[in-house]
Amino acid sequence: MKKSALVGIVVALGAVWTGTAWYTGQKAEAFVKQAIEDSNVELKKASDKWGINAVAELVSFERGVFTSTSRYRIKFTTPAAEGKPAQERDVVFIEHLSHGPLPFSNLKSGKFMPAMVASDFALEETPTVNEWFAAAKGAVPLSGHYSVSYGKDITGTFNMAPVEVAKDTTKLVFSGMKGDFDYATSTKRGIFDVVVDSVEMSGPSDNSDITAMAVKGITLTSDLKPAANDMYVGSQKVTFKDWTITSREKPPVQLKDTSIAVDMTENGPAMGAKMAVDFGMINVQAKDMAGMKLVIDAQNLDSKALKSLNDIYEAGSRRMLQSKGEEQTPQFTDEEKALLKTNFEQLLAGNPTLAVSPLEVRTANGTSTFNLNMALVKPAALEGDASDMALQALKKLDAKLVLSKGNLSDLMAIEPQMRGVAAEQAAQTAKGQVEMVGTMATAMGLGKIENNNIVSYLNYADGQVDFNGKKMPLQQFLMMAMGGVLGGMR
Asked: Is-contact 263 298, C-beta < 8 A?
């Protein structure tokens, strides 16, 4: 091929690239403006709830052929209160945008997929955040990078710088945060992965005996999208590798391998919610005591009723937080109470189910578990005594308790050891106590021994109870249970 032909091809390709980048720059500016408009819609919703006016504004947009620079801010206005005038604060970001189809900033980081625009953004110093900048000791407190596809899906990363703050007798040391995120514009599905090495806080408190707390190895994963009722469905999980709590008068407590997971699902007009809390190991005074796990699962929850109940509870909670300590629990208006009753009836009409599966306690020598499954129905009327309504709402119940003798011995030996009793002596005494518990449970019909476990179960359906193989009407069982409770109180 002749040299002149090669030069012509290169010039043509350069012209195409330049034209595409210039056109993409226009699309990028339109995207930024639309993103700010969309943000203001969401900020308005938050403002209506919390009474703090927030508005996003595009301060400037300087467009070039291959790159552009934008600055935008979020203004917060807190209303006048207690004789103090309204206050305005703002948070300002600067973005350096690289235009597609192959943004330079992406190419530098080894990303070769086409994109409409790529952004390197950073928080700017303003009076609102100057203390944050000071705590970061010269680093930019919040920065990151993201790419926007031609389908307007967003993927990126962000970083929060380490900070250290000390004031009077309190101190905060934060290792910083790194995160990845993806957002699909069409479905509004957002995926976040966040990692924090450590957070340490110390200092006395007027409301708590706790004087210090240190958390290490924090991870957060979130995958959510809007449901039909505007609540969010998907999964979230936070884990803590090590969580140490220090108190003035109580011994230090260390929680190892802790996790909290929440899953929300949608199935037509119903939703489901499942929460699992797991304390891998609870350590007290440098001794491993026990691990615990609790899983709560609710299904067939009427979506509209759940959304209404959630909104009412959120409104009461906001008022409680804004009461500056005058309200210790959410308070509801008469109108809200009526709505709570109506929507609770609607929730029960959907025949929801509730399960604890399992509540689990683990020690070195065994695991004890409790499982509960309930099916609920709408009672004839939500009036009268609460216990009567509860029984009417209960359609079916299955419960099973399995107490491992080895596990129970470990648990019973903890308290004596805390008082200074030798470990071997405490363990021997605990074993004797557990054998006595098993013998008494068997003699009283409260349980039976299976494979070195004390096992008890209860099944209820259609007004009949099966308690460890003994079948009886519900009223007879309740009288027996009340007799046992009153007898134990004598």
From this structure: no
Express each pLDDT in 156-195 by its tens digit. 999 999 999 988 888 999 999 999 999 998 899 999 999 9
Burial class (CB in 10 A: 0-12, 13-18, 19+), 272: middle
Nearest to 211 by CA among 240, 244, 242, 239: 244
Annotate 58-93 with DSSP letters as a single string: EEEEEE-SSEEEEEEEEEEEEPPBTTBPPEEEEEEE
3-state secondary structure 358-396: EEEEEECCEEEEEEEEEEECCCCCCCCCHHHHHHHHEEE
Cβ within 8 Å of residue 226, ≥6 positions away: 188, 232, 233
What does the pLDDT look like over 73-83, one tens digit per residue? 998 887 766 66
pLDDT value at residue 183: 94
CA pair distance 99, 66, nearest whole angstrom: 5
Task: Output the CA angle 218-223-226, nearest 5 degrees.
Answer: 135
| 237 in Cβ contact with 220 (< 8 Å) | yes
pLDDT of residue 83: 67
What gap in Å lies between CA 12 and CA 261, rounded to an integer?
Answer: 55
Rounded CA-CA distance 42/54 in Å is 10
Residues 6+ apart with CB under 8 A from 28: 63, 68, 97, 99, 116, 117, 148
Spatial distance between the Cα atoms of 41 and 46, rounded to a whole number of angstroms: 9
- Asked if the peptide bond before residue 358 counts as cis, ω within 30 degrees of 0, the response is yes
Other CB atoms within 10 Å distance of the CB of residue 225? 14
Residue 486 burial (10 A CB sphere; 0-12, 13-18, 19+): exposed
Separation of alpha carbons 22 and 326, rounded Å: 58
CA 267 – CA 233 distance, rounded (Å): 10
Sorting pLDDT into bands at 50, 70 and 90, what band is 134? very high
